[in-house]
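Annotated sample (chain length 272).
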Amino acid sequence: MNNRTKGIAFEQYVRQILESNGIITQSTIASNDYGADILFDYQGYRFVVQCKCLSGAAGIKPVQEVIGAISYYHAHYGIVVTNTFYTQQASNLAYSTGVLLVDNAGLTSIKSLIDHFFFSSTYLENQEAPMEDWTIKDLMGRYNVSSAKIYSTFINYGLPYYKVGREYRFVPADVWEWERLQQKVPFGHNDFIFLPGYLDYSDQLRKAYKEARKQRNCNKEKEIRHLAKREGISLFPHRRTIILAGIRLVLIIFIFWLLFKFNFFLSIKSLF
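Output written by the structure step:
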């Protein structure tokens, strides 16, 4: 297996790990990728990923490449992933430029590393408006419910939190992941609230599927259909609504037809 083949296989391996953690990815054109092999959107931000399958330490070159890719793809953050480890120079450059480095030891836990990077103090220092952990008041606005509802329903359904004294606090990344997995919570007797993280993830999945169909990427379409089925997400929600409406209409017409036939039979019977 030559170096190019190894590199492609490693890139596919990284994509599989990301997508197994619910992150929808896009591949770049291999012959002219401008420093990025994989693109993905997470929490409303675009990330570019440079994958390096090497036999020795990764130096500053892949970090420089992903910095260029951030600009070219109008991304917010860059990640370099390698199957080995990084030189001290690469680590220093990545730290000073806000690039996440993932080595062989951290590859299988890349989702946790991304979450930590995304919401860490180092990341927040580079933001114009720092994102702090949410309070009950923040979630009241997010879900448009009362604080009592958050205590009685959302927390009972596993909404992750920690406490500072008597005050509840919520880590945004943990909340988003819980929303994606939980999908909805009861509201009232026969109603549900679909959670924002689930809706955002579903929208990302549909956009990725639409893009795969546009590019006629059959393998990507198959991967997304499998992922959507596993997550219980409809890739064509409007089509499903139309089909259900059509079924209801047919049932109504059938019921009226039965009533007409029954009344017609009674009127004929009354003549005799």
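Annotation: Residues 121-130 have pLDDT under 50 and may be disordered.
Annotation: The chain has three domains: 3-125, 134-193, 199-231.
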